[in-house]
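QA checklist item 7 of 12: single-chain prediction sanity check.
[x] sequence parsed
[x] length recorded as 512
[x] structure emitted
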Amino acid sequence: MSSSQPARGKLLAEALRHLRRLQHKHHGVVESADLSDEHRTALLATGFLRQVMKGWYICADPAEDRGDSTAWYASFWAFLSGYLAKRFGKRYCLNPEASLLLHTGNTAVPRQVVAVARQTGAKTLSLPFGTSLLLYQDTKRVPRSRVERSGLQVWPVADALCLVGPSFFIGHPREAEIALAMVRDPSELLPTLLGGDGMPSAAARVAGALLFVGRDADAQRIVKDFSAAHSSIRPENPFVIEAPSLAPSRERSPHVLRLRSMWAGWREAVVARFPVPPGLPVDAAGYLSQVQERYVADARNSLSIEGYQVTDALIEAVARGDWNPEGDEEQRKTRDALAARGYYQAFQAVKASISRIIAGEPAADVVRREHHDWYAGLFAPSVSAGILKRHQLVGYRTGPVFIRNSQHVPIPREALLDALEELFDLIAAEPHPAVRAVLGKHLFVFIHPYFDGNGRIGRFLMNALFASGGYPWTVIRVSRRAQYMQALEQASVGGDITPLARFIAEEMAQTP
């Protein structure tokens, strides 16, 4: 061993300790001045630090490929929060459009975020993977009554609704509907609309939007109060969609409202791409036999999609009971073998759930109650091997989670229970089994309630719900992984469910 190696190790250890302190203090955002040249060089060389732009860095995983976007997308909002706070304190605000996206739970990483500060020059900061931050100075656009979302200074939701232009209602109709639903009373909107010389165009637009979503009395109050204070206005509907996706309700959670809007807005696209449901199987034993026949192909493809390297021989050995995690020390520690054993146990649990659905139990009640058992089966071998603790299998995630190379950021931990309760209520209320299956699967993964295993549990959920309409167990093939991932991203980030519905229908047709 070279005499310099211990010295380098000591230097790296010191740098990591300092980086850890910075991580807690600045949300993982590091400025050049925060580190000595020696520490910064050591951390960059080993991959623990990654440059965002000149003089600014984020913490990273050394094992992650430099071309992998996960670290950046996972750090995006924290970087903006840390960077803007270090530069401006609280003397800045995201523009009304970005403010509404955060208020309404749209945390997908955008291509550009616009921020306004009291003191700064206009400039665009180029950030990794085609993202950017546009900064400009406008004292009138930094309100006194700012609120904080995701660590960022933003406009209050009612103010932002008044300030966004018509293009927001056209380009982000779902977010506009959710924002309107979050405003309880016109009194939240009127101070901004009536301020100064008044905002007649905005008042007409907001009144028209309220009429569109079925809040006639609130719209009339905007018209009456504005006309009395300034000049007469007539409501102008800024939406171009044919009908609202949300019914008036007292719900205020943006995450619950988003799920309702997606379900209502997407269901017809799913119905259009699936054949008429066959109905609950009359021959329950025959249907379950077909499910079991697909176990090997399903396990190989589903595990391979998640990055596990498993063979048919291993899967069949697991099914025969020939794989013993206690008997072979090397095999016991094998990640792929543990995953294969867990998949087998979870598959059997799902098959038992399907038998109850075929017997007539409401599908929504079965999957609501038993998806916990599937998850426990999926990771039970890791408990046996001492990798996980038993208590880690009994609940949902307790912190943030990120999806590799996706711009979609799953909902925050504190919103999980409300979102899952709403999801299972939507499944229960849905009459079409293909919609239950496709949207139930996608929105489960959209919520991402677990630290790991969400994709596998989502596909199990899909097939259990397909069974409620007599559709066959459908295998999503690893050979089409790229198309599958692209379709997921188009739904989660682009708001278009059609590619995913078409993809799953094609895979159903191809499943032997």
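[x] summary fact logged: The mean pLDDT is 90.
[ ] second reviewer sign-off
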